[in-house]
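Hi, here's the filled form for the chain we discussed.

Project: internal
Contact: R.S.
Residues: 67
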Amino acid sequence: MAMRISVDRGLCIGAGMCALTAPQIFDQDSSGGSVLLEPEPAPLHHAAARAAEEICPATAIRIGNRG
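And the returned structure, exactly as it came back:
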């Protein structure tokens, strides 16, 4: 099943855990905020995306299904 990721930048505190956990999906901008590189990652990266969602201290990452 296809995965769809979103980041609530208003909740993001710039901890960087997402970029460390799933660098193929997330990065950080110059202010430390999360940047979503791949909103619909390949199945190979789904586990890393879920780990990033779980570890986010601000619960700013949301994962749903596309379709």
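Let me know if anything looks off before we file it.
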